[in-house]
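Work Package 4 report. The design task specified in the project plan requires that, given a folded chain encoded as structure tokens, an amino acid be chosen for each position. We show below one input record used in the internal validation round.
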């Protein structure tokens, strides 16, 4: 892709949008950024621009004149694929691509990409650690926190390890990982996708450009994922085939490491030393015999199920957040057996009603719309041997900018008790 003297408009001023603008600047193009938020709310993000004076900024909403004066539109993951601003561009024949697709145009090294409903961040983090332990130079990026575009121009790299969400896969065209991993599939993001089939169809796009020199790594115990066997054009590898000693995320990592020629002994040693990722079942502290656990990254039913299954009872569970249109009835028995009190933390009345409708009569519930109040209540009720578990099972957007901010707030308050 030639960017010199081309006008590239980025929709969304979050991390990935800023990263795209910086690539455009680096390669002699003319970047523009448009965002629906007022300027004061995106000022912090705009500080990440390498040359703001050469970047046109539109804040407080999108306008046709600004958007249509473009050679290419690059979309941040948070922007819906059918947003009106993108319809304007398509009607005028301006190409529209996502940030992952944009970065791919400049990628000169193999990509290992991981998608799935749960476990992506842990898996990509482990893959990167294993490759580094084997002496490879790795850039870990994507949905894990550092945009692919921010790293793609890096030199002296052996592999890019990229966490890819369904939002990022919506607007790919030629993106073709050397290894694509599909960890699992369960209900998620139904606030964005029309139904489960639409969500699945978006996820499987990670394989769509692969050929016979590439690899598809599939979860053998996930029925939906295994349906893709007949569609693949790449070489298929299965993980999670039996009662192995490792969890499914580790088994996926082991399969990837074998494909790239890393000795099992190196992989096993990394597994032993891996401390986990921040905000995923992160033990914050023990106080008066009570353990406080930060699982802010849990934004789905299945991640909540995994958290409850990983922690011994009795649990005071703090959950709730922004709506995702998921259903939680399947957790009733597990919650009844493990949770002694559910603290519903949300600023959305619909979420509060949903959790009460699902769990009233199963366990006691208590409502809060402030993190500090919720934690203080848990602190007052917990006794030695209890676990206080923040495992929201909803998005963070009712109260926080992202799950990282939610988790950090939890940790700060807990460490101040």
């Amino acid at each position: 892709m030639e960017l010199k003297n081309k006008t590239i408009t980025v929709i969304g001023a979050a991390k990935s949008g800023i990263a795209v603008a910086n690539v455009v600047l680096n390669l002699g193009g003319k970047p523009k950024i448009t965002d629906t938020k007022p300027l004061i709310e995106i000022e912090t993000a705009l500080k990440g621009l390498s040359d703001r004076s050469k970047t046109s900024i539109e804040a407080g909403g999108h306008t046709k004149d600004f958007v249509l004066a473009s050679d290419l539109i690059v979309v941040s993951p948070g922007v819906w694929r059918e947003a009106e601003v993108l319809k304007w561009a398509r009607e005028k024949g301006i190409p529209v691509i996502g940030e992952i697709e944009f970065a791919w145009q400049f990628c000169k090294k193999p990509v290992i990409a991981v998608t799935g409903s749960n476990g992506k961040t842990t898996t990509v983090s482990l893959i990167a650690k294993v490759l580094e332990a084997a002496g490879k130079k790795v850039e870990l990026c994507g949905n894990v926190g550092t945009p692919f575009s921010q790293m793609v121009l890096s030199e002296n790299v052996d592999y890019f390890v990229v966490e890819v969400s369904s939002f990022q896969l919506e607007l790919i065209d030629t993106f073709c990982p050397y290894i694509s991993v599909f960890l699992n599939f369960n209900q998620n993001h139904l606030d964005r996708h029309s139904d489960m089939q639409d969500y699945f169809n978006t996820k499987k796009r990670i394989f769509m450009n692969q050929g016979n020199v590439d690899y598809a790594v599939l979860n053998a115990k996930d029925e939906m994922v295994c349906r893709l066997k007949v569609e693949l054009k790449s070489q298929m590898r299965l993980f999670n085939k039996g009662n192995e000693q490792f969890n499914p995320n580790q088994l996926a990592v082991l399969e990837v490491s074998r494909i790239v020629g890393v000795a099992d002994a190196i992989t096993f040693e990394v597994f032993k030393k891996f401390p986990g990722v921040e905000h995923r079942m992160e033990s914050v502290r023990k106080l008066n015999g009570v353990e406080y656990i930060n699982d802010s990254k849990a934004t789905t039913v299945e991640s909540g199920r995994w958290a409850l299954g990983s922690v011994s009872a009795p649990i005071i569970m703090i959950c709730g957040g922004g709506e995702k249109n998921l259903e939680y009835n399947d957790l009733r028995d597990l919650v009844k057996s493990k949770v002694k009190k559910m603290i519903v933390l949300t600023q959305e009345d619909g979420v509060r009603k949903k959790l009460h409708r699902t769990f009233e009569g199963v366990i006691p519930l208590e409502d809060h719309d402030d993190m500090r109040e919720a934690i203080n209540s848990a602190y007052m009720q917990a006794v030695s041997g209890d676990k206080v578990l923040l495992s929201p099972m909803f998005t963070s957007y009712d109260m926080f900018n992202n799950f990282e901010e939610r988790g950090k707030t939890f940790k700060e308050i807990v460490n101040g008790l």
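The two ends are 53 Å apart (CA to CA). Validation will be extended to a larger panel in the next phase.
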